[in-house]
Design brief:
Two copies of one chain form a homodimer. Helix content of chain A is about 40%, strand content about 25%. Chain A is α+β, with helices and mostly antiparallel strands. In chain A, helix 5 runs antiparallel to helix 6. Chain B binds a DNA duplex through helix 8.
Chain lengths: ~220, ~220
DNA sequence: TCCTTTTTGTTGTAAAAACAACACTTTTTA
DNA sequence: TAAAAAGTGTTGTTTTTACAACAAAAAGGA
């Protein structure tokens, strides 16, 4: 089957064998399509007919607000989906432009077929739904985490909140974060240079230590 | 059937008739329980065995971090659920204390029964899952909205971003918001008095007008 | 109705963050 | 490997925000 290897690595289809995948491609009226760098995968405001699954490459979701300002809301990697929440929430249109940031292979899954009972009663359909549910739930919890850090007043508190949560996840005061400094500042919605200054202060005060993406919480204080 | 009227008003069970509800109470190993004001419904760190559905009353989810600081993460009303995202994401423990803020009636639904195929193959089980999926997706989109507003740098931008989004939802420059000023400040994570000052300025500059919870965008500018 | 509580707007001050500009380092890629 | 690009830390300045304290208005309860 075409692209089975890529499907197998995604959270959504990880449980299914080649035959089942093949069958589900019909269930979900899927189609594969490749996009070049900077090509638009879906456009903000277009009818939400398909949920998107990135199989190769990467993409960004960018939103243009009514003041004309562009903001990048998320970065999608292999295995990531776009539009699932919107589809399940009953939205009719895409909320963002989805743009390939490199040559990408994308799978389109028909939202109607996804949301409604499978006409073929295929066994694996329920697993896919459960997997989708899991990814939605996980992304929701990630949003909650981010919100929790961002709701802190000062940059230092935002940083500490994030570090403590990362420290908990790795069960150690030593941990690695998935961001460089610039990305961390974006994640926490603070000015990069101001954050850099604060990090240096915290290091000087002996609260934390860090090198590249490696961090160490020494004292849990503010 | 006991408490059918309350169940019927929730998003989760809205599709089901009394007989089906009755059947599902067995499927999900549910139990009803009443709580007095300030009683703890579930405790942070306890095993996540049940998803909670508030049928009467109200509750708050409060989180105590490792610095001992308490923060209120959400306020639950009738029909609201707690723990669904955690359950579907495979979390093992409750992330917060859930505390009744008034005399409340609560339904507990067994997470294992919810997540796995129904042994009774009851017809409505899938609808409940779909409804749950919808509520999770909707709450996820609400979080995204909030995050979008909060990521703006200045208080004025946060306010404008929120107002524009509320205006879009009601298809009018006149709209009502679900918050009083204090609650709005909490929602946007800004200081109430600073926000009050900013609102007054915006009114004086002729950008917006407001009275109580009624707002009007006059000019979409900053 | 009156009294109490909550909500709201205002002000001044202190603290913090954004911003801009720069040098230096690391990473990428041609 | 050299050149270009991206990332990082530092500084000083300006702007914004948080904080605190208060009075007035509105809402709720007895």
């Amino acid at each position: 089957m075409e692209h089975f290897l890529e499907l197998k690595t995604t959270k959504i289809f990880k449980d299914a064998n080649e035959f089942e995948c093949q069958a589900m491609m019909f269930c979900f009226k899927t189609r594969f399509k490749t996009f070049d760098k900077n090509e638009i995968i879906v456009s903000q405001g277009d009818e939400l007919e398909y949920v998107i699954l990135i199989l190769k490459g990467a993409a960004i979701a960018q939103n243009i607000d009514s003041l004309g300002e562009i903001s990048i809301l998320s970065q999608l990697k292999c295995g990531d989906t776009y539009g699932v929440e919107s589809a399940f929430a009953g939205e009719k249109f895409y909320k963002d432009n989805l743009i390939a940031t490199e040559k990408s292979l994308v799978l389109f899954l028909n939202t109607h077929r996804l949301l409604n009972p499978c006409p073929n009663k295929c066994k694996r359909h329920d697993f896919v739904l459960k997997n989708l549910m899991q990814t939605v739930a996980e992304s929701s919890m990630k949003l909650l985490d981010k919100l929790y850090h961002m709701s802190k007043k000062s940059t230092r508190e935002k940083l500490m909140s994030y570090f403590i949560s990362m420290s908990k996840k790795s069960n150690s005061t030593y941990f690695e974060i998935p961001f460089n400094k610039t990305e961390l500042a974006n994640y926490l919605s603070v000015d990069r240079s101001a954050m850099s200054t604060e990090l240096s202060k915290m290091k000087a005060e002996g609260l934390i230590d860090f090198d590249k993406k490696q961090y160490h919480i020494i004292k849990k204080e503010l």
